[in-house]
Write a structure and sequence with these properties.
Elements (H helix, E strand, L loop, with lengths): L5 H24 L4 H26 L2 H14 L3 E8 L4 E4 L3 H4 L12 E8 L2 E10 L6 H7 L1 H27 L8 H8 L4 E6 L4 E4 L1 H6 L5 H4 L8 H4 L10 H8 L3 E8 L9 E11 L5 E10 L1 H36 L9 H18 L13 H8 L1 H21 L20
Antiparallel strand pairs: 1-2, 1-4, 3-4, 5-6, 5-9, 7-8, 8-9
């Protein structure tokens, strides 16, 4: 007896496994059939009809009740007819053709398309509401609707053999025994931090590790296998030049290593920044120094690039802060050395500079002189015109002295040219 093809055997096993899963689901979780759900739904509809019917009957609005029942029967395709009947058999309200759908002697036996809702007043049975629904379908379709698990298994057996066979045939067509790679090698490649791709001498992908697939926004291994690396969509659109000029093709053609090729990948979202990849290529040669492929690595240096940019920004801020501190220190030094009223050196600064000038004059054996100037009758000015006018006099004298020292010629041993210190005078 001839054995069946392996594809058919595998497909049959998958179909049987799927059927077993359906049976287990029906056993543990119970798949409700359509007929049962329809019966429950009709019962709920009948119960809801009782509320407005009883309300309108209690108010004695028979005409309005007839209008409501006719409208409900017209709008709900699942309802054939509606009626309200008293306990003595008198028909109060009924839609058209109700007698055609409702049996003469009422519900007999178990009829699944009729509903009888009792109406009670003061704990006594007043009458009932009669609802006739569409009859359920009969035949094989209705049988499988009542047993959904059997219908699902029949569908799996008929369609599963065809679809599974075509799918397995496609997988085996894509499978190349020559490109089988041991699991330990694949695991080692997946453990690498950078994306690694091995291509053959035609530029087709033979192996791509997990990191490279992650860079490619979730590209699967099946989508990459046997595909030219230069044709990968997310990569080709950001590579400059023609495919023959891509670094991996140049590396195999010229048998040289190419490193440090930077490419920026646009994420396509305004919230995300571009990713920077560094591409390195190394040719794989045989014993005759012929290119048999190429190993290409993609190192994602986006985080490092962003860290460098943040570091540069921080350094610029530090430099700006340093210059600002120097300027403020100079301002503080000036404020600490200059009298705020006259703009000339105060006593502390004058003492420091005069001591330095005196020491320099002694060391260089140069003459050194110092003048002390007093404002005559200054106390009288303060007493007569007030201290504000006295301050103006001091400021004017200081400006005159500064102008005189700026135009005079002094030796190197003299105190700094504009180092004028007004001697305080008693009030």
């Amino acid at each position: 007896m001839k054995k069946p093809p392996p594809i058919l055997v595998i497909a049959s096993g998958l179909v049987m496994l799927a059927c077993a899963i359906v049976l287990m689901g029906d056993f543990f979780f119970y798949l409700p059939d359509r007929q049962t759900e329809m019966t429950r739904q009709r019962q709920r509809v009948a119960d809801l009809l009782a509320i407005p019917t009883i309300d309108l009957l209690g108010k004695g609005e028979i005409d309005r009740l007839a209008t409501v029942l006719h409208r409900i029967a017209e709008q709900d395709p699942d309802i054939e007819s509606l009626a309200v009947r008293r306990q003595d058999g008198r028909l109060i309200v009924a839609t058209r053709r109700h007698a055609q759908f409702w049996p003469v002697n009422g519900i007999q036996g178990t009829v699944d398309h009729l509903a009888l809702i009792p109406v009670r007043t003061d704990s006594q049975l007043w009458g009932s509401i009669e609802v006739a629904f569409t009859r359920p379908q009969a035949g094989p379709i209705a049988f499988f609707q009542r047993h959904p698990a059997l219908g699902a298994m029949l569908t799996l057996i008929v369609s599963g053999l065809l679809t599974f066979s075509l799918y397995i045939r496609r997988i085996l067509h894509q499978f190349d025994p020559k490109s089988v790679i041991p699991d330990r090698v694949r695991a080692a490649f997946d453990a690498m931090a950078e994306g690694v791709v091995i291509i053959d001498n035609k530029g087709r992908i033979a192996l791509a590790n997990n990191r490279f697939r992650t860079i490619g926004t979730g590209t699967t291994e099946q989508q990459l296998t046997a595909r030219p690396l230069s044709a990968v969509p997310w990569l080709s659109q950001y590579m400059p030049g023609e495919p023959k000029d891509h670094p991996w093709n140049r590396s195999m053609r010229e048998l040289i290593e190419i490193t440090g090729v930077e490419i920026a990948i646009d994420p396509g979202s305004e919230d995300e920044q571009a990713r920077l990849l560094v591409v390195n290529c190394a040719p794989i040669t045989d014993g005759q120094k012929q290119a048999r492929g190429c190993m290409v690595t993609f190192d994602d240096v986006t985080a490092l690039h962003r860290a460098n940019r943040r570091l540069e920004y921080t350094l610029r801020q530090l430099q700006d802060s340093r210059r600002e501190v120097e300027h403020k220190a100079a301002d503080l030094e000036r404020l600490a050395s200059v009298d705020y009223l006259t703009g000339v050196l105060n006593r502390r600064a004058f003492s420091e500079q005069s001591e330095q000038a005196f020491a320099r004059a002694v060391a260089e054996r140069e003459p050194f002189s110092c003048m002390m100037i007093d404002i005559d009758f200054f106390k009288k000015i303060n007493d007569t015109y007030g201290h504000s006018v006295g301050d103006l006099v001091i400021k004017a004298v200081a400006e005159i002295l500064m102008a005189c020292t700026a135009t005079a010629t002094w030796s190197a041993a003299t105190v700094a040219r504009n180092s004028v210190w007004p001697c305080p005078t008693p009030d």
